[in-house]
Amino acid sequence: MYLVYADEQGQVYDHSSLYGLARSADMIVEIMEDELIPLPEGATLVGLPSTRPIGMDPETGEMKPLPGNVQAVGALLPQGYTRLCLPGYVKTDKDYKLPLFGYSAVVWKDGQFYVTARLSDDPEKWNPLNCDPLELKNQVKTYTSRYPENRLYEHLSNCALGYECLTASNTFLNRWEGAVPVSYSCNAGCFGCISEQPDDSGFVSPQTRMNFRPRVEELVEIMMEHLTTPESIISFGQGCEGEPSTQAKLIIESIREVRRRTDMGYININTNAGLSDHIRGIVDAGLDLMRVSTISALDDHYNAYYKPRGYTLANVEKSLKYAADQGVYTSINYLIFPGVTDREEEVEAMIEFARRSKIKLIQLRNLNIDPESYLELIPKAKGEILGMKQAIEIFQEELPDVVIGSYTHVPPAELARVKVRG
């Protein structure tokens, strides 16, 4: 498995003799054969500016940086795949921050690219190749013409066509999980927020946050257009907005109105779940699915990343318990990072958190962040680093009733919440 690197123009090469290496947190590590899979369809190879790739001489075992004007290469994985290692590199400019993506180690083996990753879910629905650009463009025109006063459709048209957001695209293609953003404000100051960054953060947000408060009728129009099949999902809480539960009144009114008209499909919220009273109201209005974002079940780690305003991790757990007790199919959006998520203390804490909060699904998501900045932010490791592959296997063994996946699922029939029109 040979080292993969790029020149200054981004042209990718495989090295003729040096083996590729990876990183776990800030340690350079060897790549194990059982950590590798062929580069998945829909993955993208990218150069990592201001880095120098590290390779290993297979005869001596010596690890050494590659000389010349070269840079490390990482793979950006499609949804459904979980990275197991970071690319093996050192930074040549300590102050440079990599763009907010989730980079996975990549090597050349048996005539093709391989990545350190595992398939965690069926990627078919979220494969970008299944989103026809011409059809999408036509559907955007159809819906924005049909609802010319609906600012949400206009906002989502940029998300779909400009940012190529698949959830926003689904809203126009009227399939699977669609987006209905609702909030321009947030009760957290996430270090890696993709829609809003402080001017002095050094990061560039890849998306622009919505800047208006939608009307109930705008929400209802989108929800009614999308909830037309038994397995359709409409979701509050998108990358282009803040925390949706800060607009609980809007959400509650729109859910009630939609459920007065139809019991079709599922209503989901992607949330930090810190506003327990707001979440309680949303659940009581008729929520079906709830996905709660977390990076850790340890307070010091959670607080360092999310910078919660007016809530704690205990509030998050309280919200999850309440929703589960009311029959909502609950999951966590677990932001994973090799060398951190797989720390012994992190694994133990997450297993207990999952048991207490009664979640049904763990959605493994690759954390989009500059590795060095993240590692400087969070507490140092206290126990052994297990490796991502072993950590996931421990979750599967210790939480046999919890699905380990990668995106929102329609609940099994026996767990589906009974919908009542009212």
UniProtKB/TrEMBL annotation:
Q: What is this protein called?
A: Radical SAM protein
Q: Which UniProt keywords apply?
A: 4Fe-4S, Iron, Iron-sulfur, Metal-binding, S-adenosyl-L-methionine
UniProt-listed Pfam families: Radical_SAM (PF04055)
**Where's the Radical SAM core domain?**
181-351
Native organism is Paenibacillus rhizolycopersici
State if Iron is listed as a keyword: yes
Q: Which cofactor does it need?
A: [4Fe-4S] cluster
